[in-house]
Specification:
Layout: H1 2-28, E1 37-41, H2 47-55, E2 60-63, H3 66-73, E3 89-92, H4 101-107, E4 110-114, H5 117-130, E5 135-140, H6 153-166, E6 173-176, H7 190-202, E7 207-209, H8 216-221, E8 226-229, H9 231-234
Parallel strand pairs: 1-2, 1-8, 2-3, 3-4, 4-5, 5-6, 6-7
Helix pairs in contact: 1-2, 4-5
This protein binds pyridoxal-5'-phosphate (PLP).
Pyridoxal-5'-phosphate binds at residues 41, 43, 64, 93-94, 177, 212-214, 228-232.
Length: 238
């Protein structure tokens, strides 16, 4: 019992501390914390930490793998937190294979990683089949890293146009993950966040999902509306 309540206190302290940091960063950019959506990235976290996070009242969670997310939040699969599922917003933040499009539409409220026409096509079919229409963000590979998902910045405008005119898909946000190690090599992630903001503005897109545990305050100062925070909220992953 005692260990349980200590853990809960710890997670709730991390949650409060993160919200305070978001609030402070928002103020520096002329906004308030209420303008920023905190996505708690629950991938690879043990159940007891997730239960403690739910107890704080946190309602937005992010996952990067369909199957792992089903095991945690899925109703049919009897996910460990199936009961909590109806009260939370679940966001897909990892690369999505076309053969998982139906499962993703069934499970997620938001898919942040639309990045190619083949996936757009699969999602249209999956929405038809499931009767569910998750909100969509487009992932942009701002660092143009070959191993990373996301559409190249120079191809984005055309892609958005194709989504709107040929698929009747209307993404409400852009998402990016700046190259890892930019801090180590002495570069800040700022230019990547600035690029994403510029791309969103010229495509008339309102939301920016950018910033993780190591850089969410910087991202907010560059205009992030959604931050995806894992280890700073839950502690290190397994
Ligand atoms: C894991 C993950 C995060 C969270 O990473 P932390 O550094 O633990 O905050 C954010 N975004 C994506 C896409 C992720 O895969």
């Amino acid at each position: 019992m005692e260990t349980q309540s200590k853990k809960r206190t710890h997670i709730s302290q991390l949650h409060t501390a993160t919200l305070d940091r978001i609030e402070a960063a928002a103020k520096r950019s002329g906004r308030t914390g209420a303008d920023i959506c905190l996505t708690a990235v629950s991938k690879q976290q043990p159940d007891h930490r997730i239960a403690d996070m739910l107890a704080t009242g946190q309602t937005v969670f992010g996952e990067n793998k369909v199957q792992e997310a089903q095991g945690r939040w899925g109703a049919k699969e009897q996910g460990s937190f199936a009961d909590a599922r109806t009260n939370i917003q679940l966001r897909m933040i990892g690369p999505l294979q076309t053969n998982k499009a139906v499962a993703a539409c069934e499970l997620f409220d938001v898919i942040e990683t639309l990045d190619r026409e083949k996936l757009a096509k699969a999602l249209v079919k999956a929405m038809d089949k499931t009767g569910r229409q998750p909100e969509l963000f487009v992932q942009v590979n701002t660092g143009e890293e070959p191993q990373k998902a996301g559409i190249a910045p120079h191809a984005l405008d055309e892609f958005i146009k194709t989504l709107r005119t040929e698929y009747d898909l209307h993404p409400t946000g852009l998402m990016c993950i700046p190259p890892a190690g930019t801090l180590i090599s002495g570069q800040a992630p700022g230019p990547h966040f600035a690029l994403l903001a510029k791309l969103a503005e010229r495509n008339d897109i309102q939301n920016l999902s950018m910033g993780m545990s190591g850089d969410f305050e910087t991202a907010i100062e560059f205009g992030a509306t959604h931050v995806r925070v894992g280890s700073a909220l839950f502690g290190a992953r397994d």
